[in-house]
């Protein structure tokens, strides 16, 4: 593993839980600072000492976002499979270079878009694509929390929104705009992403409210169709709720025959799912998520 900050320490625990992996090295720019916190049995070293190590076949990259491109490229050039913390890169040109290198060497390059593996969100996508609420015309996201002020909220939180949207409709088919609300030291802490479909045959539009200035952690998605609404709320009473209704224009409320269904999921170990997916990718039992990662970076680049 390269990088062992807040997220790297969390991520390492899930790789340890998966019996398919053994963490041999923790590599950081300042090995002495994290030596006492490293997992048992892992040696602590600097990144440049592991690139060409023939005993390693894959590397986890949990370093700062702006370092992803060069680190991942070095690893791919040395024949390593890579599991990279999101986003893969901040520039589309860089993402394409990484993809080309991975494909050329037949390596698995996998990006940790954790929420794309959330069981609740997977259920939302399944319901939406099955036509449960009819044609979906709008979506809104509220992804808010406190802190991480060293990052741009679009890169750190917005990429999660894009990863979910991309499962609903390939985001290359959407047009994006942003509205910065709170900006400090050149970084946007709170902002809104607005999107709409580029296709005249699919009228989807919506918004994503993103914030590092909100006191509670909120992950909420609402999809609106002509037959009802699907709601995902990671901190709500129910993880997923489906509200179906009939529109009656001659009634005061305009709606009758409301039916509601709820689905509950354990979202506390969602991070284990992308780790398992990476393992299956290494075993060639499933493809990587590189195409989606590139689309996400191409969209992100417009906000940064």
Describe the overall structure:
With 304 residues, this protein is of the alpha/beta class. It has two domains: 6-112, Rossmann fold (3-Layer(aba) Sandwich); 119-263, 2-Layer Sandwich (Dihydrodipicolinate Reductase, domain 2), CATH 3.30.360. The protein has eight helices and 13 strands. The protein has helices at 6-17, 31-34, 68-77, 92-104, 119-129, 153-168, 272-282, 290-300, and strands spanning 25-27, 43-45, 58-61, 81-85, 109-112, 136-146, 174-184, 187-197, 205-211, 213-225, 228-233, 240-247, 255-263. An eight-stranded mixed sheet has the order 7-8-9-6-10-11-12-13, with helices on one face. Strands 3-4-5 form a three-stranded parallel sheet, sandwiched between helices. Helix 3 packs parallel to helix 4 (92-104) and helix 4 runs antiparallel to helix 8. It is elongated and about 75 Å long. The model has no long low-confidence stretch (mean pLDDT 93).
List keywords for this structure.
304 residues; alpha/beta; Rossmann fold; Dihydrodipicolinate Reductase, domain 2; 2 domains; eight-stranded mixed β-sheet; three-stranded parallel β-sheet; 13 strands; 29% helix; 31% strand
């Amino acid at each position: 593993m390269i990088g062992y900050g807040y997220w790297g320490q969390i991520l390492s625990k899930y790789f340890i839980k998966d019996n398919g992996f053994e963490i041999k090295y923790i590599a950081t720019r300042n090995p002495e600072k994290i030596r006492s916190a490293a997992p048992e049995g892992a040696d602590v070293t600097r990144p440049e000492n592991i690139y060409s190590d023939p005993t390693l076949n894959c590397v986890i990259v949990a370093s700062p976002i702006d370092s992803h491109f060069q680190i991942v490229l070095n690893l791919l050039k040395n024949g390593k499979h890579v599991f990279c913390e999101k986003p893969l890169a901040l520039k589309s040109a860089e993402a394409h270079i990484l993809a080309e290198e991975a494909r050329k060497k037949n390596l698995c390059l996998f990006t940790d878009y954790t929420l794309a593996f959330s069981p609740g969100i997977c259920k939302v996508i399944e319901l939406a694509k099955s036509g449960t609420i009819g044609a979906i015309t709008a979506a809104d996201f509220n992804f808010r929390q406190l802190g991480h002020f060293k990052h741009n909220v679009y890169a750190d939180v917005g990429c999660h929104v894009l990863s979910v949207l991309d499962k609903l409709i390939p985001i290359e088919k959407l047009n994006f705009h942003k509205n910065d609300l709170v900006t400090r030291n050149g970084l946007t802490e709170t902002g809104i992403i607005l999107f709409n479909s580029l296709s005249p045959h699919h009228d989807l539009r919506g918004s994503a409210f993103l914030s590092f200035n909100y006191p509670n952690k909120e992950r909420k998605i609402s999809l609106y169709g002509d037959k009802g609404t699907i709601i995902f709320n990671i901190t709500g009473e129910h993880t997923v709720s489906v509200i179906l209704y009939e529109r009656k224009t001659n009634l005061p409320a305009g709606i009758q025959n409301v039916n509601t269904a709820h689905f509950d999921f354990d979202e506390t170990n969602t991070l284990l799912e992308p780790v398992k997916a990476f393992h299956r990718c290494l075993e060639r039992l499933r493809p990587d998520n590189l195409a989606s990662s590139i689309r996400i970076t191409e969209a992100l680049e417009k906000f940064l």
